[in-house]
Amino acid sequence: MRYSKTVLMFVLVTLLGCGASKGGPDATVQGTVTVDGVLAERGTVSFYPVKEGPIAIGTINPDGTFALKVGRGNVANTDFSKIHSGEYLAAVVVLAQSTVEEDHPEMPPTPGARLSAKRFSQKGTSDLSFKVTAGLNILPIDLKGSANDPVEETEAETPVTPEGNGTDEDKDNSTPFEESSTEDEKNTEVAQ
To answer: How far apart are CA 35 and CA 128, in angstroms?
Structure first.
C-alpha cells in the first residue's frame, strides 16, 4: 500500500509539473495590414522581441490578414500559433503581385514592387512597436505607401566632374572591347 501511495504521489507531481511552463509561448497574434487604408494582398510581418527571444513571422494573406508564428508554428492550425508575450518591434513589407515574363514562362516570377514605405521594411527604421499580452491579440497595422518615400538621388542627377585639364587629349574614346578586338585582329594576321 505504501508503494502505491508513493507512485500515486509521484504521478500527481509529475502531471502537475508538466502544465504550462513559465516563460513559454503564451500569446496568439493575428491582425490585418493596410497600406494607405487599402487591405494588403501579399507580404510579410516580422516581430522582433525588444529583449531576447525568437523572431515571429507571418505571411500576409490575399484578404489582408496575418497570423504570427515562431518556426513552423502550429502546423494543424497556423492561425493559432503561439509566440512569447512581451514588447516587440515590427517590420512589414507589402508587395505588388509578382509577374511572369511572357517570353520566358519557365523562368521564376519577378517579385512585385514594394507598396509599403521603405522605412517599415526594417526594425531599425520602422516606428512600429507592439505590446503582446498573453492570450489572443488582434492587431491592425496601417502603413503609409511607398509613394511617401523620400526621393533618392540617382546617378543621372549626380553632376559629373571632368578630370584632367578638359582637353581632348585627356579623353580616351576607346573601350576595352575595342582594344582587345584590335589585338585579336593583329594576332590573327601574324598567325596567317
So the answer is: 14
pLDDT in tens, 125-181: 999 999 999 999 999 999 999 887 887 654 444 444 444 444 444 444 444 444 444
Write the CATH number for 64. Answer: 2.60.40.1120
Q: Residue 132's closest CA among 50, 16, 10? A: 50
Q: What domain range is 131 assigned to? A: 24-147
- What is the model's pTM? 0.64
SS3 assignment, position 129:
strand
Cell numbers that stand for 159 in this block:
553632376
* Model pLDDT for residues 68-105, shown as the tens digit of each residue: 999 887 777 767 789 999 999 999 999 999 888 888 88
What is the distance between the alpha carbons of residues 34 and 140, in angstroms, rounded to a whole number? Answer: 8
Other CB atoms within 10 Å distance of the CB of residue 64: 20
The reply to whether 81 falls in a domain is yes
